Amino acid sequence: MKKLHLSLVTAAACLFATTVSADDAKPKRELKNNMMEVYNVLPGKANGITEAFTDGTFYGRLRMNSFMYDAENPAALDHKVLGVGGSMIYKTKSYEGFSMTAAGYFSTVPYTDLERSDAPDAKMGNDLFSRYNVLTTDDWTMAVLGQAYLQYDAGKTTVKLGDQIFESFLTKSNDTKMIPNTFTGLVIENNDLPQTKVRGAYFTAQKLRSHTTSHDVITVGTSEYATDPYDKYAGNDDSAVHKGLSYANFVAAGKDTSHDLIVADLQNKSIENLQVDVTYGSVPGVVSSLTGELNYNIALPGGFSLTPGIRHMQQFDNGGGEIGGSSLDGKNVKWSGSTPTYKNNGYKSANSLDSSLTMARLVLKQGALKAQIAYSAVADEADIVAPWRGFPTGGYTRAMAQYNWYANTKTTAAEVHYDFGKAKIVSGLYVMVRYAMQDFDEAKINLQSDSNILHIDVIEKFTPDLYAKFRLGMRDNDVDTQSYNEYRFELNYLF
Fold first, then answer.
1. Do the strands 98-112 and 196-207 form a parallel or antiparallel pair, or are they unpaired?
2. Could you read off the pLDDT tens digit of each residue along the chain, which spans 495 residues?
3. 279 has which bridge partners?
4. What gap in Å lies between CA 393 and CA 381, rounded to an integer?
5. Where are the beta strands (DSSP E) in 155-181?
6. Which of 11, 65, 98, 422 has CB 3.0 to 4.6 Å from 368, enough for a Cys bridge?
7. Nearest 5°: phi and psi at 126?
8. Distances from the Cα of 272 to the Cαs of 195, 268, 293, in angstroms?
C-alpha cells in the first residue's frame, strides 16, 4: 500500500488555518460539537412522483481524519493512521407523505505505518478501514450505502423503514470517523402528546463504522467461525462488545445466532424546567434494560443556571448470562461441546447479566460557559452490555475512548466547555476540557488498572461549512505500561 508522508496532515491543517468570517445565513446542514449532523434545510413537498425525485436535496461532505497513538508500554503498537473520504446524501421531496433518503459513504487510508497484520491491534483510527477486509484482502478502502430508507409522515407521526441512523440512549451514529453506525429496521416516532416525544424501533441488523456489510446486532462472528481465523471481525466487533456472546457459544448452547434489537423511548417536558427520559432496550432471549433519567433546570442570578441530573440503568439477564457469562471479555464461561464451565474471575456470579448503573451530575451554565461535575457507579454484579455506540455513561463520566461500565467501576469526572465565538472573543472557536478518575475493581481479572484521564477538544468553525477539530487524550494508569497518549485531528467540509 502506498504510504504518504504524515506531513500531509500538517499541510492540510495549515491550508485551512486562516479564520474566515462566518456567513450569517445558515447552511443546509451543520455539525454539532460531537460531529452529529443537524439539517437546517429539508426538501419540501412535491406535486408529483417525478418532481419528488428530481427536485430533492444533496448534502455533501469531505473529511480527513488523522490519528497518532503513543503508548507507555514499549511492547505496545504505536501507530499513525491518516484517512480521507466523505459522503453524499440525497433526500427526495415528499409526495403524499412519502419520501426517501439514500447516503453513500467512502473512506480510504493513503498513509499508515501499520502493516496488514497489525490491523486488529490498532487502538486508534481502526474505524477508517475494515479490519476484516484488510486481513482477508488487504483492502484499506470502504465504500458503502450506509443509509437507504423510505419515510412516511402523517400529522405528527413519522415512520422510517430501511437502513438508517437512530440516535438514542442505547444507539448512536457516533459519526466521528468516516462512516456512521447505522441500523436496519423500522422506526416510528409520534409527537401527538403535549410536550412528549415517543419512539419505537425494531432493528434486524447493524452496520458498525468499520464494516462494509451489515451484521447481527450482538453476535460476535458468523457461521464461518470454524474455518475463518478472521471471522470475529465479520460480526459485531465493537470495542464494547460482549465477546462471550459469540456465534460458537450460541451454537453450543443450542440458541439462535440471529438477533433483533428493540428500542423504545419517551421524552417528556410537561413539568416546567424538568426533562424526563425513559428508554427500554432489548435483544430478546439475551439481555434487556430499562433506563430513566431526570434533569431539572434551576435559574440562578446573573444569568446562571444549574441543572442537577440523575440517570439509572437496570439491566436484566434474559438468557445471555448462561451463554456468554457476566464479563464482557467472555472469559467467565468456556464451552466444551454443549457443556459450559463457569469461572467467577472476581465476579459475584459467573453466569448472570443482571446488573445496574447509576449516574449523577451537576451542570452549571452561563452564556458561553458550561461546567459539569459527574459521578457514575456500576453495581458489583455483571458488566453492562451496550455495543451499539450509545455509551451508557455518555454525557456524565465517559471520556474519549474509555469504557467505564464494567462491574463495580466508579468514575468521577469534571469538565469545562467554553464557546469563544459565543463570547465574541474568537469567532468559531470552542474548547472542552475533561478530567476523569476511573476506579476499577482489582479483583476482576483482565480489567485495566485505575486511571486518570485528561481529554481536550478544540474545535474551530472557520466558515459555516468548514470545521477543524483537534482531540487530545492522555491516560495515566496505576500500571504504567497501560498508560498512553493519543492525538486526533480532523477536517470537515460540508456542501
1. unpaired
2. 333 333 333 334 433 433 333 445 789 999 999 999 999 999 999 999 999 999 999 999 999 999 999 999 999 999 999 999 999 999 999 999 999 999 999 999 999 999 999 999 898 999 999 999 999 999 999 999 999 999 999 999 999 999 999 999 999 999 999 999 999 999 999 999 999 999 999 999 999 999 999 999 999 999 988 899 999 999 999 999 999 999 999 999 999 999 999 999 999 999 999 999 999 999 999 999 999 999 999 999 999 999 999 999 999 999 999 999 999 999 999 999 999 999 999 999 999 999 999 999 999 999 999 999 999 999 999 999 999 999 999 999 999 999 999 999 999 999 999 999 999 999 999 999 999 999 999 999 989 999 999 999 999 999 999 999 999 999 999 999 999 999 999 999 999
3. 265, 291
4. 17
5. 157-164
6. 422
7. -75, -5
8. 10, 10, 16
Residues near 28 by Cβ (< 8 Å), separated by ≥ 6?
39, 40, 41, 57, 59, 494
SS3 479: coil
Distance CA 398, CA 465 (A): 29
Dihedral (C-alpha) 296, 297, 299, 303: value to the nearest 10 degrees? 160
Helices then strands, counting H and E runs in the chain, come out as 5, 23
Q: What is the pTM of this model?
A: 0.94
Other beta carbons within 10 Å of 428: 20
Q: Are 397 and 374 in contact (CB under 8 A)?
A: yes
- CA distance readout (Å), 333 to 319, 322, 357, 404: 14, 8, 23, 22
Distance between CA atoms of 102 and 114, rounded to whole angstroms? Answer: 33
Task: Please write down the long-range contacts of 278-281, taking CB distance under 8 Å and 24 or more positions apart.
Answer: 279/168, 279/169, 279/170, 281/169, 281/170
Q: How far apart are the first and last CA of the chain?
A: 30
The whole-angstrom separation of Cα 467 and Cα 78 is 27
Q: DSSP readout, 312-356?
A: EEEEEESSHHHHH-SSTTSTTEEEETTEEEE--TT-S-SS---EE
Please give the Cα distance from 426 to 364 (Å, whole number): 22
Q: Residue 167 in contact with residue 180, Cβ under 8 Å?
A: no
Q: Which amino acid is at 489?
A: F
